[in-house]
């Protein structure tokens, strides 16, 4: 992912996704190795629905991706891994994205 390819709305979504300590912890964990949802829930001492909510937000921002796999005993396991990213966010980058930033307010459901 490259900040030069992001629209203003996508840049805002990225900032919103990163503006949460639980999601930052998830990124730190996934930077070491991919995990399935139950592993993350245990490691972070959170419910699976709450982990899913955070993972969905990170996935919408393009920071993680998921892969559904079937284990040897037939269980469906949804693995998440970090998408490689590096951002150089400057005032100029933000200024350039202003043209593509919508003024629609989103209904906030979490954070």
Automatic annotation (TrEMBL):
Residues 3-97 form the HTH arsR-type domain. InterPro entries: ArsR-like_HTH, HTH_ArsR_DNA-bd_dom, HTH_MetalResp_TranReg, WH-like_DNA-bd_sf, WH_DNA-bd_sf. Gene3D superfamilies: Winged helix-like DNA-binding domain superfamily/Winged helix DNA-binding domain. Pfam families: HTH_5. Transmembrane segments: none annotated. The keyword Cell membrane does not apply. SUPFAM superfamilies: Winged helix' DNA-binding domain (SSF46785). Keywords: DNA-binding, Transcription, Transcription regulation. This is Transcriptional regulator. It comes from Shouchella xiaoxiensis. The lineage of its organism: Bacteria, Bacillati, Bacillota, Bacilli, Bacillales.
